[in-house]
Amino acid sequence: MPRDRHPSPPLAPPLPPVGRASRSLAWRAVLWRSRFVVAALCLGVAAAALTEAVRPPAPATVPVVVAAHDLDAGSALTVGDVEVRHLPTAVAPARTYPRASDVVGASTAVPVGAGVPVVPGLLVPDDVHGPAGTVVAAVRFSDPAVAGLLRPGAHVDVVAATPEGAVDGTVAVRALVLPVPDVTGTTNGGGLLGDPGSTDPPPVLLAVSPAEATALAGAAAAALLSPVVVP
Predict the structure, then answer these.
(1) Is residue 73 domain-shared with residue 159, that is, in the same domain?
(2) Residues near 113 by Cβ (< 8 Å), separated by ≥ 6?
(3) What is the pLDDT of residues 145-155, one digit of tens each?
(4) 107-122 tens-digit pLDDT
(5) How does DSSP classify residue 63?
(6) By CB count within 10 A, which of 25, 46, 129, 133 is most buried?
(7) How far is CA 130 from CA 1, 51, 229, in A?
(8) Residues 6 or more apart whose Cβ sits within 8 Å of residue 123
(9) Which stretches make up the SAF domain (predicted)?
(10) Which helix H or strand E contains 109, and what residues bound it?
(11) Are 213 and 130 in contact (CB under 8 A)?
């Protein structure tokens, strides 16, 4: 039998399965539609990284002992009366206690509110003590020269008067005048006894009841205080 001299045309490549092609097109469509989401995520990550890079560092802090709750004048401080907080250095008082153990056992000279830093000026000096049941209050009288006239051991009534001269009442009765510790040469200014470098007369230290100490602290803010020597 004679052979056909014209070769048969080449066969067309087989078509891919319909299912596989559909899945490929579907994935391409998903990726195309999600390109905006991916771009947004990338921008978010970049923005977060930039914010973290330019954020200012946290301010420096120092440990400061503060009152854990309201304290009356004459309170003997215990571990439960104080706590340590970290305050920014820029706002922390110049002279503070960093550890609760530094003040436990000391007594408050004036009422101290909750959260107020416990500084030396709020505490009774170690070498000043009144009779049992009393607390030590530092009082500045309206006439500064009075401080030099009162002698330790004397008893005084403390009278409060308005700036206009009207008597507002007696805020302490038979308060005992205590000796003032020698603060010459110290550098701890601003305490209960004031600044040792000041030329003003020091305050008078009086042994009074805790209630009288509170009354004195309140009266000192709005009234003029004067002593009356009594037997």
Answers:
(1) no
(2) 67, 70, 71
(3) 887 889 999 99
(4) 887 778 899 999 987 8
(5) E
(6) 129
(7) 142, 59, 18
(8) 103, 106, 107, 108, 109, 192
(9) 62-124
(10) none
(11) no
